[in-house]
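Weekly structure sync, notes
Attendees: PL (lead), two postdocs, one rotation student
Agenda item 3: pending single-chain targets
PL asked that the sequence for the first pending target be pasted directly into the notes so everyone works from the same version. It is reproduced below exactly as submitted, 299 residues in total.
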Amino acid sequence: MRVVILGSAAGGGLPQWNCRCPNCTLARTEPNRVRPRTQSSIAVSANGTDWLLVNASPDIRQQLFDNPAMHPQEGLRHAPIKAVLLTNGDVDHVAGLLTLREGQPFTLYGTAGILDSVNANRVFDVMAAGVVAREPIAMERTFAPLPGLSVTLFPVPGKVPLWLEDETMEIGAETETTVGAMIEANGRRLAYIPGCARVTDRLKGRVAGADALLFDGTVYYDDDMIRAGVGTKTGWRMGHVPMRGEGGSIAALADAALGRRIFVHINNTNPVLVEDSPERAEVEAAGWTVAHDGLELSL
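Predicted structure, written out during the meeting:
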Protein backbone atom coordinates (compact mmCIF):
# COMPACT_ATOMS: atom_id res chain seq x y z
CA MET A 1 0.00 0.00 0.00
CA ARG A 2 1.28 3.41 -0.99
CA VAL A 3 0.23 6.48 1.01
CA VAL A 4 0.92 10.11 0.10
CA ILE A 5 0.22 12.90 2.56
CA LEU A 6 -1.00 15.56 0.16
CA GLY A 7 -1.76 18.14 2.85
CA SER A 8 -0.68 18.07 6.50
CA ALA A 9 -2.11 21.32 7.91
CA ALA A 10 -5.43 22.06 9.55
CA GLY A 11 -7.99 24.50 8.16
CA GLY A 12 -6.43 27.56 6.56
CA GLY A 13 -3.08 25.86 5.92
CA LEU A 14 0.31 27.31 6.81
CA PRO A 15 0.80 30.20 6.50
CA GLN A 16 -2.82 31.26 6.79
CA TRP A 17 -3.60 34.03 4.33
CA ASN A 18 -4.24 36.72 6.97
CA CYS A 19 -2.07 35.55 9.87
CA ARG A 20 1.18 36.99 11.27
CA CYS A 21 1.54 34.61 14.20
CA PRO A 22 5.15 33.45 14.79
CA ASN A 23 4.68 30.21 12.83
CA CYS A 24 3.05 31.87 9.82
CA THR A 25 5.74 34.55 9.80
CA LEU A 26 8.49 31.91 9.84
CA ALA A 27 6.76 29.94 7.07
CA ARG A 28 7.03 33.07 4.91
CA THR A 29 10.53 34.16 5.92
CA GLU A 30 12.36 30.99 7.05
CA PRO A 31 10.73 28.00 5.33
CA ASN A 32 13.74 25.88 6.30
CA ARG A 33 12.52 26.18 9.92
CA VAL A 34 8.76 26.09 9.31
CA ARG A 35 7.68 24.36 6.10
CA PRO A 36 4.58 25.78 4.42
CA ARG A 37 1.77 23.25 4.39
CA THR A 38 -1.53 22.82 2.59
CA GLN A 39 -4.78 21.66 4.13
CA SER A 40 -5.49 18.11 5.28
CA SER A 41 -5.74 15.31 2.70
CA ILE A 42 -4.10 11.99 1.82
CA ALA A 43 -4.11 9.66 -1.19
CA VAL A 44 -3.88 5.87 -0.92
CA SER A 45 -3.30 3.20 -3.58
CA ALA A 46 -2.90 -0.57 -3.59
CA ASN A 47 -1.39 -0.68 -7.08
CA GLY A 48 0.23 2.74 -7.58
CA THR A 49 -2.15 3.50 -10.46
CA ASP A 50 -5.64 3.89 -9.02
CA TRP A 51 -5.92 6.26 -6.06
CA LEU A 52 -8.38 6.88 -3.23
CA LEU A 53 -8.44 10.50 -2.10
CA VAL A 54 -9.30 10.76 1.59
CA ASN A 55 -10.79 14.22 2.17
CA ALA A 56 -10.92 16.87 -0.54
CA SER A 57 -8.88 19.83 0.66
CA PRO A 58 -9.53 23.37 -0.62
CA ASP A 59 -5.91 23.08 -1.84
CA ILE A 60 -6.54 19.93 -3.87
CA ARG A 61 -5.63 21.43 -7.25
CA GLN A 62 -2.15 22.39 -6.01
CA GLN A 63 -1.73 19.10 -4.17
CA LEU A 64 -2.46 17.05 -7.28
CA PHE A 65 -0.13 19.27 -9.32
CA ASP A 66 2.67 18.77 -6.79
CA ASN A 67 2.42 14.95 -6.97
CA PRO A 68 3.11 13.52 -10.47
CA ALA A 69 1.44 10.20 -9.61
CA MET A 70 -1.84 12.16 -9.51
CA HIS A 71 -1.41 13.74 -12.97
CA PRO A 72 -3.52 12.68 -15.98
CA GLN A 73 -1.77 9.73 -17.61
CA GLU A 74 -3.64 9.05 -20.86
CA GLY A 75 -5.92 10.66 -23.46
CA LEU A 76 -7.25 14.20 -23.25
CA ARG A 77 -9.10 13.70 -19.95
CA HIS A 78 -7.96 11.30 -17.24
CA ALA A 79 -7.46 11.22 -13.48
CA PRO A 80 -5.75 8.60 -11.30
CA ILE A 81 -8.17 9.64 -8.51
CA LYS A 82 -10.94 7.05 -8.83
CA ALA A 83 -12.73 7.55 -5.51
CA VAL A 84 -13.02 10.12 -2.71
CA LEU A 85 -13.76 9.35 0.95
CA LEU A 86 -14.83 11.97 3.51
CA THR A 87 -14.10 11.55 7.23
CA ASN A 88 -16.20 14.59 8.22
CA GLY A 89 -17.95 17.57 6.68
CA ASP A 90 -15.47 20.27 7.72
CA VAL A 91 -14.74 22.93 5.12
CA ASP A 92 -11.08 21.89 4.95
CA HIS A 93 -12.21 18.37 3.99
CA VAL A 94 -15.05 19.04 1.53
CA ALA A 95 -14.38 22.35 -0.23
CA GLY A 96 -12.01 20.65 -2.68
CA LEU A 97 -14.96 18.73 -4.11
CA LEU A 98 -15.83 21.94 -5.97
CA THR A 99 -12.52 21.67 -7.84
CA LEU A 100 -13.25 18.05 -8.84
CA ARG A 101 -16.18 19.12 -11.01
CA GLU A 102 -14.72 18.92 -14.51
CA GLY A 103 -16.83 16.02 -15.76
CA GLN A 104 -14.50 13.39 -14.29
CA PRO A 105 -16.20 10.19 -13.05
CA PHE A 106 -15.43 9.04 -9.53
CA THR A 107 -17.36 7.72 -6.53
CA LEU A 108 -17.82 9.83 -3.40
CA TYR A 109 -17.99 7.80 -0.19
CA GLY A 110 -18.94 8.82 3.34
CA THR A 111 -21.35 8.01 6.11
CA ALA A 112 -24.97 8.99 5.56
CA GLY A 113 -24.51 11.77 8.11
CA ILE A 114 -21.54 13.26 6.27
CA LEU A 115 -23.07 12.92 2.81
CA ASP A 116 -26.33 14.43 4.04
CA SER A 117 -24.47 17.65 4.89
CA VAL A 118 -22.93 17.69 1.39
CA ASN A 119 -26.20 16.84 -0.33
CA ALA A 120 -28.02 19.61 1.54
CA ASN A 121 -25.79 22.27 -0.03
CA ARG A 122 -26.70 22.74 -3.69
CA VAL A 123 -23.32 24.23 -4.56
CA PHE A 124 -22.01 20.64 -4.56
CA ASP A 125 -24.40 19.82 -7.39
CA VAL A 126 -21.60 21.01 -9.70
CA MET A 127 -20.51 17.37 -9.32
CA ALA A 128 -23.17 16.10 -11.69
CA ALA A 129 -25.15 13.13 -10.39
CA GLY A 130 -24.65 11.28 -13.66
CA VAL A 131 -20.86 11.59 -13.29
CA VAL A 132 -20.12 11.41 -9.57
CA ALA A 133 -21.91 8.67 -7.66
CA ARG A 134 -22.51 9.35 -3.96
CA GLU A 135 -22.33 6.18 -1.92
CA PRO A 136 -23.31 6.18 1.79
CA ILE A 137 -21.34 3.71 3.89
CA ALA A 138 -22.47 2.22 7.19
CA MET A 139 -20.17 2.26 10.19
CA GLU A 140 -18.09 -0.88 10.73
CA ARG A 141 -18.95 -2.18 7.27
CA THR A 142 -15.88 -3.05 5.22
CA PHE A 143 -16.13 -1.94 1.60
CA ALA A 144 -13.79 -1.89 -1.40
CA PRO A 145 -13.57 1.57 -2.99
CA LEU A 146 -10.86 0.34 -5.39
CA PRO A 147 -9.44 -3.03 -6.41
CA GLY A 148 -7.10 -4.35 -3.74
CA LEU A 149 -8.13 -1.70 -1.20
CA SER A 150 -10.61 -2.18 1.64
CA VAL A 151 -11.86 0.43 4.11
CA THR A 152 -13.79 0.25 7.36
CA LEU A 153 -15.23 3.43 8.92
CA PHE A 154 -15.57 3.72 12.68
CA PRO A 155 -16.81 6.49 14.98
CA VAL A 156 -14.40 8.70 16.91
CA PRO A 157 -15.21 11.40 19.48
CA GLY A 158 -15.76 14.66 17.61
CA LYS A 159 -18.35 17.27 16.73
CA VAL A 160 -20.33 18.54 13.78
CA PRO A 161 -18.61 20.87 11.28
CA LEU A 162 -18.27 24.52 12.33
CA TRP A 163 -20.80 25.62 9.70
CA LEU A 164 -23.43 23.26 11.19
CA GLU A 165 -22.95 24.18 14.85
CA ASP A 166 -26.01 25.22 16.86
CA GLU A 167 -27.22 25.16 20.46
CA THR A 168 -27.70 21.37 20.32
CA MET A 169 -24.06 20.67 19.43
CA GLU A 170 -22.31 18.08 21.60
CA ILE A 171 -18.52 17.92 21.70
CA GLY A 172 -16.96 14.50 22.10
CA ALA A 173 -19.94 12.46 20.96
CA GLU A 174 -19.33 9.43 18.73
CA THR A 175 -21.63 9.90 15.76
CA GLU A 176 -21.59 9.57 11.98
CA THR A 177 -20.28 13.11 11.55
CA THR A 178 -16.66 12.40 12.57
CA VAL A 179 -15.11 9.07 11.67
CA GLY A 180 -11.82 7.30 11.38
CA ALA A 181 -10.88 5.00 8.53
CA MET A 182 -9.03 1.70 8.72
CA ILE A 183 -7.56 1.22 5.26
CA GLU A 184 -6.12 -2.17 4.28
CA ALA A 185 -4.22 -3.56 1.32
CA ASN A 186 -1.96 -6.56 0.83
CA GLY A 187 -2.18 -7.46 4.51
CA ARG A 188 -1.12 -4.00 5.72
CA ARG A 189 -3.28 -1.62 7.76
CA LEU A 190 -3.37 2.18 7.92
CA ALA A 191 -5.50 4.01 10.51
CA TYR A 192 -6.42 7.54 9.45
CA ILE A 193 -7.97 9.84 12.09
CA PRO A 194 -7.45 13.51 11.17
CA GLY A 195 -10.03 14.74 13.70
CA CYS A 196 -10.59 13.43 17.23
CA ALA A 197 -11.79 15.12 20.41
CA ARG A 198 -10.34 12.58 22.87
CA VAL A 199 -8.60 9.22 22.98
CA THR A 200 -10.83 6.54 24.49
CA ASP A 201 -10.07 2.93 25.34
CA ARG A 202 -12.40 1.93 22.52
CA LEU A 203 -10.41 4.01 20.06
CA LYS A 204 -7.11 2.57 21.28
CA GLY A 205 -8.45 -0.91 20.74
CA ARG A 206 -9.71 0.02 17.30
CA VAL A 207 -6.30 1.14 16.00
CA ALA A 208 -4.20 -1.49 17.80
CA GLY A 209 -2.02 -3.45 15.42
CA ALA A 210 -2.07 -0.86 12.61
CA ASP A 211 1.14 -0.60 10.62
CA ALA A 212 0.76 3.19 10.66
CA LEU A 213 -1.48 5.69 12.43
CA LEU A 214 -2.07 9.14 10.97
CA PHE A 215 -3.63 11.03 13.86
CA ASP A 216 -5.08 14.42 14.72
CA GLY A 217 -2.21 16.80 15.57
CA THR A 218 -4.17 20.05 15.52
CA VAL A 219 -2.86 21.47 18.80
CA TYR A 220 0.11 20.78 21.05
CA TYR A 221 -1.53 22.19 24.16
CA ASP A 222 -5.27 22.67 24.46
CA ASP A 223 -4.78 26.47 24.52
CA ASP A 224 -2.32 26.85 21.61
CA MET A 225 -4.43 29.50 19.88
CA ILE A 226 -4.85 31.49 23.08
CA ARG A 227 -1.10 31.37 23.79
CA ALA A 228 -0.41 32.60 20.26
CA GLY A 229 -2.83 35.49 20.77
CA VAL A 230 -4.84 34.78 17.61
CA GLY A 231 -7.99 33.13 18.97
CA THR A 232 -10.07 32.23 22.00
CA LYS A 233 -11.03 28.64 21.24
CA THR A 234 -9.36 25.68 22.88
CA GLY A 235 -8.58 22.47 21.06
CA TRP A 236 -11.42 20.78 22.94
CA ARG A 237 -13.89 23.44 21.80
CA MET A 238 -12.81 22.78 18.20
CA GLY A 239 -13.16 19.01 18.68
CA HIS A 240 -9.44 18.22 18.72
CA VAL A 241 -7.43 16.43 21.41
CA PRO A 242 -4.07 18.04 22.29
CA MET A 243 -0.79 16.22 21.84
CA ARG A 244 0.41 17.02 25.37
CA GLY A 245 -1.17 17.79 28.73
CA GLU A 246 -3.96 16.02 30.58
CA GLY A 247 -5.63 13.51 28.28
CA GLY A 248 -3.14 14.26 25.51
CA SER A 249 -2.79 11.82 22.64
CA ILE A 250 0.93 11.11 23.12
CA ALA A 251 0.42 9.75 26.64
CA ALA A 252 -2.93 8.14 25.85
CA LEU A 253 -1.51 6.15 22.93
CA ALA A 254 1.92 5.47 24.40
CA ASP A 255 1.19 1.79 25.10
CA ALA A 256 -0.82 1.13 21.95
CA ALA A 257 0.58 -1.55 19.63
CA LEU A 258 1.33 0.54 16.55
CA GLY A 259 3.87 0.84 13.78
CA ARG A 260 4.58 4.39 12.65
CA ARG A 261 2.89 7.23 14.52
CA ILE A 262 2.39 10.38 12.48
CA PHE A 263 0.63 13.63 13.37
CA VAL A 264 -1.45 15.22 10.60
CA HIS A 265 -4.00 18.07 10.44
CA ILE A 266 -1.65 20.44 12.31
CA ASN A 267 -2.90 23.93 13.13
CA ASN A 268 -0.82 26.96 12.15
CA THR A 269 -0.27 27.89 15.84
CA ASN A 270 1.10 24.49 16.90
CA PRO A 271 4.73 24.93 18.09
CA VAL A 272 5.80 21.51 16.74
CA LEU A 273 5.77 23.07 13.28
CA VAL A 274 9.07 24.79 14.16
CA GLU A 275 11.61 22.14 13.27
CA ASP A 276 14.19 23.19 15.87
CA SER A 277 11.68 23.76 18.70
CA PRO A 278 11.75 21.88 22.03
CA GLU A 279 8.17 20.80 21.34
CA ARG A 280 9.22 19.13 18.09
CA ALA A 281 12.08 17.39 19.91
CA GLU A 282 9.68 16.11 22.61
CA VAL A 283 7.23 14.75 20.06
CA GLU A 284 9.94 12.96 18.12
CA ALA A 285 11.47 11.56 21.32
CA ALA A 286 8.07 10.05 22.06
CA GLY A 287 8.22 8.19 18.73
CA TRP A 288 6.01 10.46 16.63
CA THR A 289 6.63 12.04 13.23
CA VAL A 290 5.26 15.49 12.39
CA ALA A 291 3.87 15.17 8.88
CA HIS A 292 4.74 17.50 6.03
CA ASP A 293 3.24 17.77 2.57
CA GLY A 294 4.61 15.12 0.23
CA LEU A 295 5.56 12.64 2.94
CA GLU A 296 5.12 9.13 1.49
CA LEU A 297 4.67 5.78 3.21
CA SER A 298 5.10 2.34 1.72
CA LEU A 299 3.30 -0.22 3.86
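Discussion points:
- Residues 2-292 form a domain with the Metallo-beta-lactamase; Chain A fold (CATH 3.60.15.10).
- The chain is about 20% helix and 25% strand.
Action: rotation student to compare against the earlier draft before next sync.
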